[in-house]
Design a protein that fits this description.
The mean pLDDT is 88. The chain contains 3 helices and 2 strands. The protein starts with 9 loop residues before the first strand and ends in a 9-residue tail after the last strand. 60% of the residues lie in helices and 4% in strands. It has a two-stranded antiparallel sheet with strand order 1-2. Helix 1 packs antiparallel against helix 3 and helix 2 runs antiparallel to helix 3. By secondary structure, it is mainly α.
Length: 164
Amino acid sequence: MTDAPATADAIEPPVKRVGLVKAAGILGILAGILLIVVAIIAWIAVTSQLTAENITVPDDASAFAGQQVTGPLTAYVQAETINKHALEASGGKTYAELDQDDPVRNTVMQASFLRASLYTSVVAYGVCLFAAAVGVLAILFGWAIRRLADTPVVIKRTAFAAAP
């Protein structure tokens, strides 16, 4: 019977330097925080601008009747209601379908401008949500990268028995 040499697992720091990996993790976390902060600031700015316009959703809207336009849902419903009213005024015709000398054409044009402005705010809210979601992902990835870079390496040493 041969005595096998004793073996032990060893925890050693990685041979390669991971400073750049750690820096990338920190940058990811910082970028994520910045994205979330900017998204919140933009959301507040769009909301304050919409609120300052004092737009009230009309009673014949599909939802939010009588409420002030202060967010993405009320802005969308208001834009759709404006479109409904413009189409009623024009007999179902869009701006491009109306004759140039039609007196309703100016009303439909103004409705189109208002709808475009409201849809722009809806898109801005979507961009804010997207930026915040990307910020959360950047923080999670940065944290994961940092954690992986700090994980020690376990080296398992195996002793081989000498061949007889």
